[in-house]
Structures are given as C-alpha cells and as structure tokens.
Amino acid sequence: MAIQVLYVDDEIPHLMLAQEYLGHSGKVDLTCVSSGREAIEALSKNSFQVIVSDYMMQDMDGVALLKYIRQNYGNIPFLLFTGKGKEEVVIEALNHGADYYIRKGNDPFEQFAVLEQRIIQVADRKDVQEELAAREELYHSVLAVQSELIVDFLPDLTIIRSNEQFSALNHGAPTDMIGRKFLSDLSLEDQEELSGAIHLLTPDSSNVDLQQTFTSPDGRDLTFSWHIEGVFSTEGQLVSCKATGRDISQESEARADIKEYEERYQEKATDLPRDMGDFDENVPLNFIIENTRPAGSWTLPELIKQARSLKMNGIASSTGQDGHRAFLIFLNGEPDGGIYIDRTGVLYGDKSTLFLRDSHQFTFYPTAPEIATRFITGCRIYDKSHIKVPNVYAIPEIPSVRKGIGNITLDLRKGGRSMPGIRVTIKSEGKIVGNDITSATGQTSFQLLYGDYTGVVLTENGTLHNFTFKVNTPESSHVVELA
Q1: Which one, out of 125, 131, 417, 454, has a CA that is 20 to 30 A from the CA of 15?
Q2: Is residue 273 a part of any domain in this protein?
Q3: Is 428 a domain residue?
Q4: Are 378 and 429 contained in the same domain?
Q5: What is the reported pTM?
C-alpha cells in the first residue's frame, strides 16, 4: 500500500517536480500544498503517514510548521528540505523532533530518489518505534513493582540483619536470618568469587555488583541482582557490608522482548553511523558532532562524574588508536545510550559498553534533551555495571611504576584464530582480582600488582581452561592458546 505523504513547498516548480518524480512511483501517494496554512488545513481533513516540508516559505517556515505539528498531531514523521549552509536550521529542526533533513541539490533525480528512500524508511521506522516504546513501557512497569531485598553482613558473609523481603524469600523471619551466611546457596565457585570481591573492597573502591541465579522450591529459575557497599572504620578497615538486591527475572524476560524490537529498529534507523569510516554528515549523529561546539574532554570515569553532577544532555565521542569509535548518549546526566564501532561491525546498547576502558578519552557535545532521547532509541543501555564509577573489582591506582604495578594484555587464540567474547577471570592466591570479556580481536587487558597470577577461561563449549602468567614489567603481553 502506498505511503500517504503531505508535501509542502511554496514554489510551484518544486511541487511539479515532486509530482513527476514521486507521484508516479506507486510507493508514495502524494498530496501537494503550497503553504504552511494549506498544510494545516489538509491535516485537519486527512491523515498522513509522512510530512515533507521546505524550510523557506513565505507564510510559515518549515520549523514553525514542525512545531505546530508536534504540538497538535504528535510524532508524524517529518522530513525537512534545507539549502546548503543552513546548519543552524537543521539543529533547530532536530531539536524540535524532525526525523530527517535533506539538502537541496542540482540533480532532481538524485534528490527525489534519496527523498523517496527516506520516506519509506521513516514510515517503516515509526511502526517499529511504537512497538519498541510499548515494550520499554512494559519493562519500566516491571521495575516499578519490584521490592528491594536488604541485607547487612560481616566480611566473612555472616548476616547480622535483613529486611522482611529477604527473609520471606528464604522462608523465615528477619531474626531467623541472623548468623546465616549471605547467599549460602551459591555454587562453590560463585562463593569464592563473592568472597574475593568482598575482600578487595577499599574506601576508594567500596562497591561491587553481582548476579545470583538459583531454582526456587517451586521449580522457578530466579535471577537476583545485588549491589554491595562496604562500610569501613576510620582506619580504613572493612567492618561490614550492606547488600541491596532485587529480582530481575521478569526484568530479564522483558529485556529479551525489547531486544527483538531494538534489532528491527536498528535495521530501519538512519540516525547513527554504521561503520568506522562513516562520517557522512547526512547521518544526524555525525551532523550534530560536526556542527556543535564541544563542552570539554574527559576520561570515562571523569565524564560520568561530570555528566551526573551537571545533569548533562548530549553525545560523548571517543576514537581509539585502532580506529574504533565509541559514543555514549547522556540524558539528564545518565549514560542511557551507547554505540561501539570497530572493524568487525557495530554494537548497540549494553554490548557497546563491554569494550569501554577508563583510559578512553571522550569529547562531549551538548544537545537538547529531545535529540538525546531520539538517539537513545534503539541503543539504550540497561546494564551500566561496565561504566560505573568506580569500576567493579577495580584495583586502587598506584601512580608510580616503582610501587610495582603493570598492564598486561592477554591474547586468546584457538588454532591461530582470535577468540572474541570470552570471559577471563584472574586470580591471585585464590582470590579473584579481575574479570573481563575479550574484545573483537580476542584481547583483554588488566592492571595488576607485580606477581604471579592464574587465569581461568570458560570456553565456548563450556569447559574451563587454566593458565598462569607473571606481571613484572610496566607493559607486557601473554598469548593464551585454547585447546
């Protein structure tokens, strides 16, 4: 079925060209009007799936028409025609919810071919966007009804108090929980990981996040997310821990439902770059970065701290020496959207944060909240554990090499082939001191005190592979060959 399009331009020759190039394609059912006032009248009588408007018109410019439509007709896809050198117009239009902009050129065939493609894309995208918004609303409704579990325990995991929600989950009263071990139903490996993480807590790195999965007495698989904060004495000694948990089982199901629609939205979206060499200004995110004055540059932890303190809205961009490009999109100070692009492709949302490092330098470009919200759609970050400050399992930084600290890069291979997406756990004297996932090139890096370490790899077929290595220089590397 043809897409119903309202085309607005006060120059009659342009309307005739639109009819000639678009009106006979069969993909678009075109209604042409020659002023903003006529467009408003047409909207009052008919429904349209897409609106295309010129910017320069005598009675009402295209941005003024856009504002009227957004106020009275909601989110009908809106495409704006602009001339060259009108960057401020494009930014204003994007600020007020324009879906796309097209610059007028000398070749009408090429211009209207691009326009037809954009019309089809924004019409398709709107349907998927509405489905995605409905799934996200369901996800947030699941979060709203969750009750927090609260537990205080000693460094040896002995519980000293808990709330009723935690005790009810364990079929008892709060007083019954006193003296029990926190998360005693974890596997031995997970208990070891938890104990190691607790003993690594310091006043400067005082929290850790983890997930616990177990089967309830009625046979349901439940997953809980825990945030654990250390409580320290004036001498810096760990005295106790406060754990806050919540059941994320339904949340995980809702997120899985969202994922399907996010992937469909990403296929339709034209807002974001799709490869390392994509600097095309016709991509809105690139356009904003190229035409917005940066507010400053920070490392990742500094950026998170700065954005939250000032409630910043905008796009943070980082380019690595290997050519990778990373973007974090902030709304009200929170990194709610993410994109990571390297030679192997593009990652959105949660996956985009897996390869971020504290040393990455980001430049921040402020935008209106509306623009940030628009870009977040389809690349929303739900799990922010990889971009928290301080990082999970972070080792306190030691500024001098003479203090005995080095960076080691582990290169995981199998038959000479790089092994991306493999979890690597690092242990020292039986305690876990680091966890990470290998990059697209099969590498991961750790900052460790000088000494001997054991690495544990869970391979793709589910078997454990152990290896040992030594850190005794400021920079080193180690190849791990998986059998």
Answers
A1: 125
A2: no
A3: yes
A4: no
A5: 0.54
